[in-house]
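Sequence of FANCE protein (Daphoenositta chrysoptera).
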Amino acid sequence: PPELSILNSCSPSQLEGLCSFLQLSSCPEPFLVRFCSWLLALSPDLSYTSAALLAEQLFLRRVLSLTQPPSRLLLAALTSFCSKYSHPLCRVLVAAVLQEPGEGAEQTKLMCELVEECLEPHSVQLVLSQVLEVPLSEKLLPVLQAVLGRQEVLPPELLDLLVLTLCQQAPAFATSLNYAKLVTAVLTLYQSQVS
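Predicted 3D structure, token representation.
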């Protein structure tokens, strides 16, 4: 709808007010999918700040409250949004999931799915750098495995940080099968760069 062009002229506080007025954080999922498809057609593209704010409003509460696998509609909306605004989505969503205490099994699975199927290479690197900023835990190992599964060429500084983190954390994961798989994957994929 032409009315959506207003999103490009809103300040962050106005956009937040608009999202609140439209109740986007709790809108029904079929509307969420339609709204995300409208966003893709928007020209010019949303600014980084606006896209990050919309990612927070549209998805954050839904993702953090997951206790079972996300619905097909929520996944479709996320995938759609991700296809154009993966960087702001990662910045908002991944950071929040990483800071959540506890297991967060569904959130971890969702992050793995996004990494494996939706994110562009530069966003995959962003996820990796975000994961390496927090203390490693068993719940984050599958996310690292998903990142390595993409077999992207990592910048040397990011690869060094990954290797250093794995070395430092080794004692804490002495009995972890996931950790062993991760180390094997790093040594296999980046054998020429890892001494």
